[in-house]
Amino acid sequence: MKDFVITPELLLQGYANGIFPMAESRDDPEVFWVDPRMRGVLPLDSFHISRSLARAMRKSTWDIRINADFEEVVDGCADRSDTWINPEIRRLYSALFRSGHAHSVEIWEGSQLVGGVYGVVLGAAFFGESMFSRRTNASKMALAVCVDRLRQGGFQLFDTQFLTDHLASLGAVEITRGRYRQLLFSALEQPAEFEAAPSTTLYEVTQRMTQTS
To answer: Which among 26, 64, 35, 2 is positioned nearest to 159, based on CA atoms?
Structure first.
C-alpha cells in the first residue's frame, strides 16, 4: 500500500482501524501501513517495575516533563543505526502533536533531555510509537511515567505495536489481531485525558506503581 500521500487525518483514521505507518529506513521516502497478525499491548494494570528500577527512580533527581520538546523526543527515537522514522514520519507526527493528538513523556537531567517516549491518543487508547534513552534506565522511567499518566487519565489500551523482549520484561503481552481490534474499538468509545494528571516526580510515580503492583 505505497505510492500515496498520508495526511495527518488519514493517519488518525488508520489508527482508528487498527493499522499504523512505518518506513523501511531513515533514507526511504516511502511510508506504508502495517497490520500485524499478532499485536503487542501493555496492560495498564500489569506494568512491572523491578526493584532496581524502583530504587533508581526514588533516588533520581531527574525531572518529568510532558510535551516540552516533542520533536526532540522523535529525533531521539530516530537516533539509531536502524530506524523506521524517516522525514515523512517525523512530519506527520509533528502535525499530530500540533493538533493535540500526539504527546511525549520526557525525562530531563537539568537542561538535557535524557530519555522519552511518544505516542498517539484517540479516545481511551494510547498508541506507543517509540522510546529512547541517553542514560541508564531513562527510557524505562519515561515508560513508567507514561503508564502512570494513562492510569490516572482513564485510558484502557496501551498499544505497543510489537512485542519485544524488553517490553515483555515490563509486562507487555501479545494478542491476536481480532482481540486487539475488540479492545481498540471499545477504547475508542470511551473518554480519557492525557494531560489531566497533575505534575509529579519520579519518586511519586514509583510510590503509586509499587502500591498497585
So the answer is: 35
